[in-house]
């Protein structure tokens, strides 16, 4: 089979000469109807029925993992055989090789990936029709949000064309998995109803008839679908077929369910009889068209239209508008019994009110009985908020009641309000709600009503008791924020925004320093408009000082600026949560864990989590997907003001935080490298509760979760007398930095630690830092500096009788001399390291030293002696609990086997080395073994396998910080050149490439 290798920018590896590098082929799957599978344009048989069922399940849940236990339940139910787990693993392996025939055994491949204790299907662009369908329907809803109905209809039609019948076809029926595929079918039915509504409104009903007929055949008792088909047939001039369809559906409902047609079907039938066109009421997120008119009720002489003016400079929020438009479609659901409620929440100044008002204006014409608006003033002081009783008085007044006739009691007002709104089509915008209790009495009594609510806090009770949809708002993205500022400045007659890269960069910096908060950006735009000569650079300089940043937005009255907005939320906090909020400003990275904040505050983790939930509900902090708590840049500036003004012992808080990181990092490092000679820190001070990862995976995950904060903690420890030696903290992080290839952080941390130790006269600490820095220099190929650092560290360790540390220095010198080709000198250093390791029982050190000795012996031609040494090292490594040393041992064994002419055995050892490196999560090990495996496959003329190994090496290198070292990038490019030369593509000379 010919292996095509294309130029790949996505590989991310380019020489200075921009050489060509290889990539892989493509597959395509169809699940929206009969299950089908193509590879490189040729249809492939997916295999036996049960294997097809497994594939259909994974495709239906594309991008989401399914555990093996769930797969067993979905495929077999309670009749699962004892071998079900093995059967699933076998099916997955077979499917992987069907998708990628040249995939080796045990390789994951590009599509079916292992995820925890299960699998997931990872579709690429254009790989799966279900993903394309969802992208197109989302695009249609987004077009509707901006009132581009033609574009919306085109997207809907393109999406519906992908559907060929019930999702998964026969593989979806008869098992516990049926609801999964039924949910996919419901997406198709909802899209058909939406498309029909838009098509009829544009007088283009014919384009959706085929798809509606398919939907009607799939769901013969679905009234919204059948109503849409009848209405569309009538609009297309097929009155006879429309009437016959209604009669058929009516008979089916009576025979099968014993019920009469619902209001949607009756309305569609009447429209066909009277040849009238239905009124379009929404974007079609689901349902069967508009509701029939309810019984008339008393209305005011003037229909209320109380919405605040739409913001002239409103920009962005496309995704949020599409979400709102999709939710609005539920108004067409004939089974709704209450109003549609959408509650927007987010931090003060994020633009909730502007978005709600903008969307309300977009949909206002659909609410023929008027639009009501109330500012509930929940963002003001407790006594300034609007009570439910007063709010109802205002609403009743807008409905035509004279205030003199409005009863005083809340219950009486609620009763009248619900009676007046029953069966009517009203839009209600309730701005700045304090909580759910303030809103619940103001809900209209009609399923045709839309209620938009804005609040700082998520109104969970409103969602739980009244079915509200909660929509959280974050600051807008950078393009929208930039457009917001520029549009406001364009309307300023005296302000000219400078053009050019320099001016753009300054403006972008200002926007980021404002955290893209719309309120802050609007205030700054106002300042710039009022002061035409105020330079952008001066504004940026003012904002860079985090302790004084909020002063840039202060108004003369002290209200309407970010500080005032944050102060209201702060005053609502309990005293304990308020203190935790102040302390959070001292976090050393964008986010901080609950455990770190607990240590910092001297409280228990359980108590800290409770306070953090309160802060998250108040939109003062936000929890990310790694369990860390972050705050908006301006909220953090506000917290920092409070921290400096109200915390009496700030250094003590920082000291506890640094101790938390030192103690926790030490525990995690001990799990990763239990035999490494790292200095044990003193016991944690009172109030500091260190985290204790128990397993290797937990320790790796802990370090990954703290990858930003640990380098900053080392720098912070070096800045003051906090009782934490920077070199101690740097050494605890070193095993993880080396495994994951974070060479630049490693180098920076060790240099800071070394400088701090020298400044404080800590000779032993300086020696530790020099040894760590030398190991980092080894990976950067700065061998002379490494030897100098190790020589000085050796002298200090020897003077202090530090045997384990001295053994580590000699082992490091052994590696450097071996890399420089000084193998006799390397063997001398090995003997010194070995005697020291044996003296203190450091078996881990002995194994690593034996690996380097084996490499030197191979280079010196002593192959039998090398093989004996390496075989013993491998046996000792396999007896240990972890496989961290196994990749390095097998790599050198492979080198020895290749020198003996046993290339296939060398290849096998490299494959095992890759497996061991993957298991131990060693990116360096994966890279080194995969790169050598690529060369080994090339020597064996197995080009497809060489390409896979090359891509594996690329992936491992890209996963490292800054894409690995220069030596790694050169090695990958050299292999890429070799691969290019053995394909059918003619290689270009390097001079021509340059």
Explain how this protein is built.
- Helices cover 57% and strands 6% of the residues.
- A hairpin with a 2-residue loop joins strand 2 (36-39) and strand 3 (42-43).
- It is mostly helical and 994 residues long.
- Helix 6 packs antiparallel against helix 7 and helix 38 (903-919) packs antiparallel against helix 39 (923-939).
Summarize the structure.
This protein has 994 residues and is mainly alpha-helical.
Overall shape:
globular
**Please, what is the average pLDDT?**
83
Range of strand content: 5-15%
Structural class: mainly alpha
Q: Report strand order across the widest sheet.
A: 8-9-10-7-11
- Major β-sheet profile: 5 strands, parallel
State the low-pLDDT regions, or none.
1-24, 276-301, 985-994
Q: Considering DSSP H and I runs of 4 or more, what fraction of the residues is helical?
A: 55-70%
CA distance, first residue to last residue: 32 Å
The tally of beta strands, per DSSP, is 14
Number of helices: 42
Gyration radius, in Å: 34 Å
Which descriptors would you attach to this protein?
mainly alpha; 42 helices; three-stranded antiparallel sheet; disordered N terminus; disordered C terminus; 6% strand
